[in-house]
């Protein structure tokens, strides 16, 4: 069932005593560490009627219905963007119970928000008895995409949970969740695997050369690297990083570079920019050559990074990550971030 061996110790600690499990779980970790897969496996185990050695049996009525996407006691909430582009189709199947499909199909762009109406419906359904399992389980992913009204509504459910209910929140950016939500959950962190373990996992799905390239362009999370490879996004990411290198070298302007990548997903773009900037700062401070340097060459010999201006850039990236769920002018935001990177490098 599971091949994310790097999370096996975390799994064993989590499922050691299911009856003692806290009703609110916050599953965190870097992108690509199999948080969704872990959450779904845990959900199936919690609902399974005949678990075997901390594993769902796979054959009982609960397991059959769960894997078919029709278990009445499992609920999943996500954004329309995750529903469309997320790597787990089973999560999307469960989310259809909560989303207004007709309205979703009319929108030009999928929503990035988990709205309060979804949480209210979840509350209504969770205050009824379980149908066929001993528990009810809810999954919210990515949890930081709840708007403030949704988070406040969920808080009430976490403060007064119905009997035999488990809530699993999944987030790579737990700092973007309200402190009140975080304080009412037990955090479970999934580790990054070593490069050797990550490469071995990726070689199940691609060649050794492709695995090396995929890991070089990510933070070392093999599941994310595999997803980017499967979607054909690795060449785009390489092009984006090369554009940032050209910006630093003065070969392209901030406005022109922002315009080049405007048609692409803004949240993905923010994630790549954040990683690039973090690795750049570490490199400039003697922290080692970045992973992406094997794919994207950058000469820092004549560049001087301003620590204060790099911190300002991180703050701006974090700000746009938080408000990206609301309508905004992405072109202007991208231009602002490109100018901020220029200012941080050219003192």
Label this structure with key terms.
single chain, 347 residues, alpha/beta, Rossmann fold, 2 domains, five-stranded parallel β-sheet, 7% strand, globular
General description of the model:
This protein has 347 residues and is of the alpha/beta class. The chain has 2 domains: 5-189, 3-Layer(aba) Sandwich (Rossmann fold); 233-345. Helix content is 51%, strand content 7%. The chain is built from 17 helices and 5 strands. The mean pLDDT is 88.
The biggest sheet amounts to: 5 strands, parallel
Number of helices: 17
CATH architecture identity of the largest domain: 3-Layer(aba) Sandwich
The fold-level CATH name of the largest domain is: Rossmann fold
Spatial separation of the terminal alpha carbons = 53 Å
Average pLDDT, rounded to a whole number, is 88
Helix content: 40-55%
Shape: globular
Overall structural class, as computed from helix and strand content, comes to alpha/beta
How many extended strands? 5
Question: Which CATH class of the largest domain is shown?
Answer: Alpha Beta
Order of helices and strands: HEHHEHHHHEHEHEHHHHHHHH
